[in-house]
## 1
Amino acid sequence: MNIGIIAAEEEEMLAIKNIMEDIKESKIYNLTFIQGTIQNKMCILVKSGVGKVNASRTTQVLIDNYKVNYVINIGSAGGINEELNIEDIVIGDKLVQYDFDITQVGNYEKGEICEIGKYIKSDERLINLCIQTIEEMKDINFNIKIGTIGTADLFSADPNRAISLKKEFDIECVEMEGASVAQVCFLDNVPFLVIRGISDVSNGNNKIDFHTYLERASKRAAEILHNLISKI
């Protein structure tokens, strides 16, 4: 079994690399693939870079070259749900590209992609394993929510925009890669999951919070991943 793991930024990638054993590295194009084990399962970790195109391209290269059985996208996100705090975790049961808009050319909703739909659902088995993982983590001092994650090529610190997005898409958090990873996996018929640690919340201070808490949020997401992989 091969488990592909995609992170966008260096801090997110290093948080995962630190829990891997028996590491070796190889390059394809300008991407560095880190092979090793987590919980005795073979994992292939790669940093995609920020944004939907980078994430999509990296996902396809990963699938084509390593024949992965699962893809897990892990990293940080900005909290939209008012119940979320920095370092909480969101696990995406479905993903939406909230900046995708073809509403003026047909009977489409905002976020709806032709022949795919508005929301892309994560693998049901992986979600169920996440639920088991959460139930076993009894002594944690942070929240873990399962819900919708929104993706766009956009970073916004505007609290009013966060309120609007929550109302329109019912999303828990926003980031810049997850739904594009989901789209590639959906098209390639590869089970996927997106895990996000909250690095900032929509309070107008996102720029400051993001860089301050990125590493901490990434480590927390890696902790969930470590416990989850033991069950896959």
## 2
Amino acid sequence: MTPVKAEILAVGDELLYGQTLDTNSHFISGELDKIGVRVVRRTTVGDNEADILQAFAEAESRSDILLISGGLGPTSDDLTKPCLAKHFGCGIRIHEEALKEVTEFFRKRGRELTELNRQQAALPECCEKITNPLGTAPGMWFDRNGKIFVSMPGVPHEMVHMMQTEVIPRIRQRFRLPIIAHQMVRTAGIGESFLAEKIAPWEQSLPPHIRLAYLPSEAGVKLRLTTFGEDAGKIEKDFAALRESILPLAGQYIFGFTDDPLEVVLGKLLLEKGLTLSAAESCTGGHVSHTITTVPGSSAYFLGSVVAYANEVKINALGVNPETLAQYGAVSEQTVAEMASGVRQRFGTDIGIATSGIAGPGGGTPDKPVGTIWIACADRNGVETRKLQFANARLVNIKLTTTAVLNLVRLRIKQ
């Protein structure tokens, strides 16, 4: 089956200036992916007629669908509507149904319909109106030579409603769509290049119709397998075989085959085993606890934490021996081990975890440069520690440390 290709065009100077984040294009991409439409390009243009018209022409030459957001307001800098009329070679006139909708919109809110607002109901004669119940700018649907243009408001909640209730159903009806299927392989505790080396034989054996992408982040390296087809059963059979064959090569680093992040997977594991968790944080400043508690229902297994930034807090709240701090320092295996044991004892949990390090950008020494981190996990079988060495990017180090200590708990439970 020939894939249906789409492009997304976001219009507005505010997007190019960095004053507004383009969440619309992100949302539209996800909705199209769900129904089997392949997004091949996303473009942003400013409020400039020549640039908008050029973007229209290029998209029409390459793709089956162009989805446009923004530029539909009533002021002179909103150019999407006149540019669409120019591109399709038709005039603009008041659309009577759209005028009734705009008039009613203002009446319900007790506001006067000005002439400027009335012009919201002026649409290109060659389009089909798409009702916008949440705002004053109607959407527009153009169909020429098998190519579809859809123009939607830039206001996010108006665009989202229009996509879900009008645009997606129309696209489904207009095109015969394949299945776009993704299989995720979530890993932690290994870098992208090291993972690539381990799974090289697996990657080389992938069928030609399945594409692999490496998606590294502070939360770990995510592998995404993508394929197109019509037979959902065959696709799942292919993915099942690939899930099975990657485990002997990288199973110790794989924590899931869904989109669930590590904190969700760990939470399910703690619930399954009936275990409780507490945390003692220094360099992460509460980020570990925050990450754990983003999961609904985490109160069933996470009892609490201590952010022990100062040595006095490590001593008084966690029971760290002052001699340990004096001899080895706050950033040390000995200190982080006592922190994990101390928080476990104070909270009466099955597992206690701890972090201590130099997040940066300052504070490093020749012996302990910025990015030196110690983590620990204490349970009834003892304490396991790990030394990590990151760079001098403070927020990145905090996120990487969070991933590492949560993964340490996961591995310890699995063992």
## 3
Amino acid sequence: MRILQICNKSPYPAKEGGPIAMNAVAESLLQSGHEIKILALNTPKYHVDENAADASYKERTHIEWCAVDTSFSAKQAFMCLLKNKSYHVARFYHPEVEKKLQAILCACRYDVVILETIYMSDYIPVIRQYSQAKIVLRAHNVENRVWHRVARRTANIVKRAYLSVLARQLKQYEKKMLPAFDAVWAISDKDARILQSYGNNHVYTLPFALPIEHCGRLEPMKSDSLFSIGSMDWEPNREGLNWFLHKVWPLIHAAYPQLVFRMAGRNMPPEFYQYQSSGLQVVGEVPDALEFMKQNDVLIVPLMSGSGIRIKIIEAMSIAKLVITTSIGAEGLDVEHQKQVLVADTPQQFLQAVRYVMQHTDDCEQIRRQAQQYVCDNHDYKVVNGVLSQLLARLA
């Protein structure tokens, strides 16, 4: 098949959750023998130097970028509020993108067009006008759930009210647009059930895929370093880590002063650097996220908002890293407490989880082994490519 993939940010370089997930779909399509082309927005928040991009990647994916300023605009936000339109979606629509998309569709016939995230849905009319392709939504999250959860946890009353309005508008938009797709590929079974309730009967689960190179190999765990990694310009990541630093780390440090907690990620908030003492190390952006994970022991994912799945958790499990996360962090994964991960939702539960790691070495080895096997069974490219072939056959 000839497939066009339209992305709200560049899948190259794949350095954070969204681009990693989009790149995984592209890689699955290529491994399955399909011809693909990528049209990606090039935004200030995730800017790509097109000239410096890897030549082989450009050749394999025929990627084109379109520069779009998605930065916050008070004027645009206010106009969307007045018109009861989703500002989250409006930020990603631009006439230049539509113009480039029209040219791409007129130059070549595509069998399938994949829109990465609901935010790209405003381009459906131009796709329908210039192509007979089936249109698929690749849903990374149930987006409105992310923002409803963020709003509930926002202390500032005015900001909470505004975020609640944005979440409501986004939910209205998702419910309105979902029936316009020929199929929806959710990233987890839980998201698939929710999205199906929005009025589309062609909702299926396409798991996130990654290469599993060493399933069954466990390196010794020293249990002397906790770490976190994630893009800090995503509100749920920043919110969760801020909560952990204020509420949880003081308890852990008091109980285990020898432990080190290393924080890595793009766009680390400046205020986080004030914590760089008492066992805390602010690493910031790292050149190789997987290598950073290999160098540390226990991944902490203190997520209080969000939807979909946490790709960094799957990556960590794939290399047999022990993961301590919240119930929301574990959402979308068929994992259980003390089987594949450790689940903690309160400061005391996080402390108990760390104590479990320190005192139950053999049990933790078994958890790591089961976590890695779970990823091998459910997220290896060989497994996901088979699911993808079935989904494309349904469209055909």
## 4
Amino acid sequence: MRAPSRSHAFALWGTATLCLAVFLLSWSFGGASAYPWQLLSPSEDLELLHRILIDIRLPRVVAACLIGGALAAAGVLTQGLFRNPLASPSVVGISSGGVLGAILAFYFGFNLINLWVLPLFALVGCMLTTTVLLRFARDPHGFPIEDLLLIGFALNGILSALTSFVLSLALNDFDKAPAMMNWMLGTLSGKTWEHCLVASGPLILGVFFAQKLAYRFNVLSLGNDVAQTLGLDLKRLRTQAVLLVSILVGTSVSMSGMMPFIGLIVPHLTRMMVGPDHRQLLGLSVINGMTLLMLADLVARILIPPQEVQVGVLISLIGSPFFLWMLYQRRRQAAL
């Protein structure tokens, strides 16, 4: 037992150190030449530096931490719920449901009422999608990968078509359409401390309660029959997992738009580090999710300055080949 404990401690320190290093890099570099250590020395431009570093750049980095960690946790929950490493909120359509809900809020102008309205609409969209997915994918012997992916792709297609339809209705509105398109591509631009404050409660509580369910997912991984024999209430666990995934994904989507594949890439790479134990997997996945999104956002800001690449586009460019590689690996293992 000592070796796994030391291995987990090493992985924890390593990922935490990397996360802190990327945090400092992401805070230090951007479109403007301003660095955190300059705040410690007297300067005529101190007010401008404070504006750039504390009011603009730091909230963006904190938002990346919150969203990246939440989406990684949602990915762990989704994979545990369906007992399949290829499941993730973006692959099986959960994120698309949140996007549709948020787009409807944009279209009808509800997002202007209060900062809480957008997360609420995205939450409802995620919850409805997850409920439909569970309803169709339920199987007494588990969730076959073929059924799960086919249903997820079908839901993604339907929800994306509905989202495109709403967008097409708003094309002539030059106030709504650009904002909706920019948000759909996935961006952290313009995030303020107010956005972080609104999102921090649901996201932190969601991750906290997800950790409370970690041991139950270890039991569920043994199979439905074994889990029920051991006294696990499957219906209650599924309800709790659906609610948590919806909160995590809905809040994240409402804050940044589409950030696909984080919930697929991060849990898979973290599982290679510490194994399948959800008690260890969840916490490390949260840290790695923070690191990945902060790094992607940093690249998006410095790739072609002074313009910014949408960070959601960069994540998709990484995630899509990664998903194909995972499918290839599963097919190769099945053939052996």
